[in-house]
Design brief:
- By secondary structure, this protein is α+β, with helices and mostly antiparallel strands.
- It contains 2 helices and 6 strands; from the N terminus they run E-H-E-E-H-E-E-E.
- A hairpin with a 2-residue loop joins strand 4 and strand 5.
- It is globular.
């Protein structure tokens, strides 16, 4: 089963491809997406990385959570389902 990770603290200039390449060190990444602001079309500084293999996802959490990425410390944990907006 696929596991989706939340990645926070990303530099605003990070691209989807750079995020995927960085997390590929932990295993096979099925998708990597930076969340963009709809009004400004700029990065919001966080994104999601999805792994097909749960072991690879767990490795990514231990490898990258709290670690430096291009001058910023990343927050990496298992993504929670999006809560409904009011």
């Amino acid at each position: 089963m696929a596991k989706k990770l939340y990645v926070g603290g990303l530099p605003y200039k990070t691209t989807n491809d750079e995020l995927k390449a960085h997390f590929s060190a932990a295993g096979e990444v099925s998708s990597a997406t930076i969340i963009m602001d709809k009004m400004t079309n700029r990065s919001k500084g966080f994104g999601f990385v999805e792994f097909d293999n749960d072991t690879d996802a767990d490795n990514a959490i231990s490898m990258f959570n709290g670690k430096d990425f291009e001058g910023r410390n990343l927050t990496v944990n298992e993504a929670r389902p999006m809560e409904p907006r009011r």
